[in-house]
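Can you give me the bound-state structure? Components:
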Amino acid sequence: MYTEKVMQHFADPKNVGELKDANAIGEVGNAKCGDIMKIYLKIVDGIIEDISFKTFGCGAAIATSSVATELIKGKNIEDALKLSNKTVVDELGGLPPAKVHCSVLAEQAVKAAIADYYTRQGIDPSLFIKANEHDEHHCCGEGDNCSS
Amino acid sequence: MNAYFDNAATTKVSEKVIKGIQPYLTEQYGNPSSVYSLGRESAKAISEARAKVAKAINAEPNEIYFTGSGSESNNWALHSHQKIITSEFEHHAVLHVLKEPVLLPVYSDGIVKPIDLEKTLNDNPDVTLVSIMHANNEIGTIQPITELGKLCRERGVFFHTDAVQSVGNVPIDVKAMNVDLLSLSAHKFHGLKGAGALYVRKGVKLPAFIHGGAQEFGRRAGTENVAGIVGLGIAIEEAVSEIEDKNAELFKKRERIYDAIMQIPKVQLNGDLHNRLANNLNFSFEGIEGEALLLQLDMSGIAASSGSACTSGSLDPSHVLLALGLPHEIAHGSLRISMSKYTTDAEVDLLLEKLPAIVEKLRAMSPLWNG
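Here's the bound-state model for the whole set.
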C-alpha cells in the first residue's frame, strides 16, 4: 500500500529527534487520533539552518515528517511557508487516500513551528500564516476534506 | 528467517488437509446434487465431513450447516431476530448486522459477566436471542459460555456463540455449554479459507439464508464448496485431537514471550492473562503507534497485527480495546501476537530479539515518549 519512497523514509527517517538549540517548535495532531508531529527549527537570519522532528504515528506520519524536514532544510522562511501537503505527497510518490491527512499534518507542523518563531520574535504570526483550520479534536482521515 | 504471529487472522493449511482435499480438486469433481456416482461420491464426502464437525463439538450431523465463512455463519444466526443482546466487543460480523442491539459491557479483563446478562435479560423480556463470542478475536479472552447459555436456556431465549477463534483451541461441547447456535471457520484451524459452518440445535427455528437449490437441508442454497468442506472436516478432527498437547506447548511459548515483553518499560497486557486462548497475547506499548510497529516488525521478517486505527482502515482504534476502557492512544499502540501449532521456538527467538529494539527506536522518535 505504501510506495518504495515512503518505506525508505519510514525505515530510515531523516532529521529525527530533538534539536537542542531550536529556536522554534511546532506541534500538531493529537494522541487520540493516533498521530502527533513535532517540528524543531533553528532559524538564523531568516534561514532554516537546522531542523528535526519527533512523530507519534503510523508509517505515513513518520515518512511525511521526514520528507517535510528534508524539503525545507536550508530554505528561507518564506519558501518554507510555501510547502504544501501536495508537495509532500508528490515527493513520496503518492500516499494511500486514508493517509493523505498525514501530509496535511506535516504541512501544518512546519507552519506551526514558523508561527512559533514569529511569536518568539514578537511578531504576530497571523500576518504571515493562516491559522491551522482543523479542530484538534477531530481526527482527519479518508473522506474528510483536510487538505483544503 | 521469517516469523508468523498472526494466526488469529488465518493459519497455514495442514498437510493432512492438503492431502485429503486433493481428489476433490482433481478427478473427484462431481456436483454433490447429481445422481450418478461421481456426484454421489462428493455427496458422501460432504456427509462424512458433516459427521466430523458434529463429533468435534458434540452435536448431531443434521445440526451442522456448511457456510462460506465465519462471518456468514454469524450473519445467518442473527438475521431473523428482532431484539438481540450481545456485547460491546463482538466481531463486526455480529455487531454490524444488528440495528439496535442491547450491549453488555466488557471490563478491563475482557470477560462478559453473567450477572450483567441476567439483569439485562430480566430488563428486556422481548429479547429472543443472545450472542456472545466464545473467545475474543483480538485479546483471546474466553467467555463463561456455559453460564451465559444457562441463563438464556432458563428463559427460553436462544443463545448463539461466535466460536471462530476457539474451535480447535479449546474443547467445545455444545450440549454441556447450553449453546443453540455456534459459528466456526475452517481457516482458523488449518483448514481452507471460504469454508465455515453454523451449528443449529435441533428444534431451533432458523429460516433459509440463501434461496435456490436444496443444499444444506434446503436452508443454504448453492453448490457446495466440496474441497473446502472436506478440508474443514479433516482440519477440525485433527485440531480437536491435538488441543491438549498443542496448548501445553503454546503455554510454554506464551510464558516466554510474556515474561520477556513485560520487561519492556511502560507496556501492558490487554485482557486477562489466564482466561485466555493459549495462542494469544495482546500488548500496548506507550508512546508508539501500532501500524509503525507492524511495519518495523515486517522489515525484520515478523508478521503480527494491531488494533490501531491505521490498520483497521477507520479513524478509531479497535472497538475491542476501547470496550476494555483503554484510552485511544494506548489502543493505537497495541500489538496482537497469535500463535499456532506450527509456531517454532526459533520464531519466538526472532520476535524477542527484534521487538524490544523496535519499540525503543519508535519511542526515540515519539513526542509522547520522554525516555
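A couple of observations. The CA atoms of residues 84 and 129 of chain B lie 5 Å apart. The two ends of chain B are 31 Å apart (CA to CA).
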